[in-house]
Amino acid sequence: MTKVLSHGIPHRIVRDNQSFQLVAMIDGAAANTQFIQNLQVLSQQRSLLAQASQQLASLPKSSSAEERSALQTQISQLDARVTLNMQFMTKNYGYSVQSNYLLSPVNSALLRKAVDEAGAVSEDEAKATVVAELHTTESYDELQLLRQRLTTLAQDESKKAEVEKIKEELKSKFSFDVNAHYILQIRKSALYATV
Questions:
Q1: pLDDT tens for residues 13-28?
Q2: What are φ and ψ of residue 47, in 5° steps?
Q3: Is 186 contained in some domain?
Q4: What is the domain range of residue 185?
Q5: pTM for this model (two decimals)
Q6: Alpha helix locations (H) across 94-174?
Q7: For a pLDDT cut of 70, what percent of the chain falls above it?
């Protein structure tokens, strides 16, 4: 699933005046999707644990022993899940809560979602059509930046000409039609940790 070394991928990068070291390569669309989902689950669990701990700490002294015990049980269960998931993330990705991370898509694809006869958009990646291959982090970042700028500028009626220019650039560089629905599939990524 992951490899620490990969040819052609920088082992150290600097972004926003912060230095990052390569800790893992994640190969495959399914592996990247799973990694991102794992991060989301871990983040949610850590948030729930913090909320429950704060709730326990803020209980009034007059609260019942049952109420305190129920919260303590919930905290223990959440802590056990977080610990288990952290062990999995550390073993499989070299992940640690002590570091900040950067996931850099190295190879990705822009997939146009399929639409059935009734006009319903399918979320099934197997039915989607590849419209652009992004073989570098820079091309991935450029696509994302253009989409972000388009979203921001589209809200300002006075920026109509600039919006049209961005739409054309998206169409010519990435075969991206703003009226269609897409999946941005990460096929290979580099995981970097702060140094």
A1: 998 899 999 999 999 9
A2: -65, -45
A3: yes
A4: 105-194
A5: 0.78
A6: 137-153, 160-174
A7: 96
Residue 125: partners with Cβ closer than 8 Å, 6 or more residues away: 29, 111, 183, 185
- The number of domains in the chain is 1
- Give the tens place of pLDDT for each residue, 78-110: 999 999 999 999 888 888 888 889 999 999 999
Strands of the chain (E only): list them: 2-3, 12-15, 18-27, 101-112, 129-134, 182-194
Identify residue 83 by its one-letter amino acid code: T
Residue 187 lies in a domain: yes
Is 86 a member of any domain? Answer: no
Residue 43 located in a structural domain: no
- Tell which phi-psi region holds residue 177, choosing left (phi > 0), alpha (psi between -120 and 50) or beta: beta
